[in-house]
Amino acid sequence: MKNIKHILLFILPLFAFYSCEDNDASNPEFGDTDLPHIYMEWTENIARKIGEKVEFSPQVSPSDGATYKWTLDGEVIGTTKNISFTVNEYMTKELVFEVERNGVINSRTASLLCPQPFVPKSYSKKSLGFLAKGGGISDVDWDNITHLVLSSIVVNINDAGAYTLDKTIFDDLNASALVAYAHHNGVYVLLEVSGVLGSYLNASPVYGSYTFYDAAINDNTYTSLASDILSTANDNGFDGINIYMDKANTATGAFGEPGKLKRFYEQIANTAPATKTIDGNNYDYLLSLSVVGGWTRGSLAGVVNIPQFDWINILAFGAEDLSPTAHSAQWYAEQEVGVWLGWQGPIVPSRIVLVVPAFGLRYFGVPANYTWANLSEYTQYIPYSNLCSSYIDAPSKNIIENKPFVNANTECDVIYYDGLPAIQTKVAYALTKDIGGIGLWSVENDSKEISKSLMRQINISLGN
User: Fold this and answer.
1) Residue 96: which of 105, 395, 260, 401 has the closest Cα?
2) What is the pLDDT of residue 22?
3) In terms of C-beta density within 10 A (0-12 exposed, 13-18 middle, 19 or more buried), how is residue 145 classed?
């Protein structure tokens, strides 16, 4: 999952120094019990297709007296430092490189995947997971999702006013491996493009930031921006694009140039490929967009019914207030879905995916002291997985009251979140409206324990 290039940059010069000099005062001998360090390009998830090679040439220091062993699911496949072998079967196996020196052992472990040909999962409703920056392949519950969205590449604007695409998410996550794992599990995977997010934990756009919007409405850049976004997704093997536009923060709750913004969305829609070829078969190229709830929702009303866009993700969470209250209440989810089904779109139910949170919002202190200027001093966003670790009964509840909220003048400490009961209630509502599915922001913050997992509860409740 995590790439260790930054470690290599620091360590390799040191290794080169030791390996090129004789043992003397400037290059002392290593002790008999020193740990043999391993330096190489290594990730926790490796994907290769049939006929492709797995090759590694690690450097080890100290290496005098060291022995080496490579194993694949426990079977020894090599006893030299370097290894090269051709993948000749579909597999998901554990690849281990082990170095032993005078009884001291160091190792590297990875999951090696040779994906089966893509066969999309059958499902009743979309069970969609967002994987946000900082998460990795091992965070994805492949058994309980039908679609995955990777968030995100970010549209920035430099000092000269030209846009740039921040693709640093690919520094820590191997895109080709992610796509391989998704397709192996019958899951479609989309790349999200967004504006600047203040936090990937709660998907919050930076207030007053319009980097994506400004580039999208610019007469001179909107076509090249659309082209660069599509190229980035296609070059990395993604099955489509999800667009998460900057949040409109103006007094009217709308962007100033809605016509030009729609022009950008149409440029994406009209230049995106109609199909994607996966393992020799053609599938629809997927386009979706994310919208936030609340009074700014109207800013994208003009674009949701562009026919090429397959669905919209309604992010109905993260609503802070000056009085402690649930940020993702049932009424809020129903309101947002209802608005888009009614006057806001309106759009057909199958084109809506209601997205629920995998995080809690904690309020503490005396609410009478809260202001919009200092609210961040009295609030904290907490991953759902952390809540499960800290509170044994967290999955069975939707609120944790360390100090219940009584009134504005009384100190409180309360955490609002979606536990398993909230998921069941929201999915039940979604089914009554026959919407297209439920999504989770974001899977790296979900519990890895099956009995506590929000993603699993979503999928089961949807009937998939």
Assistant:
1) 105
2) 36
3) buried
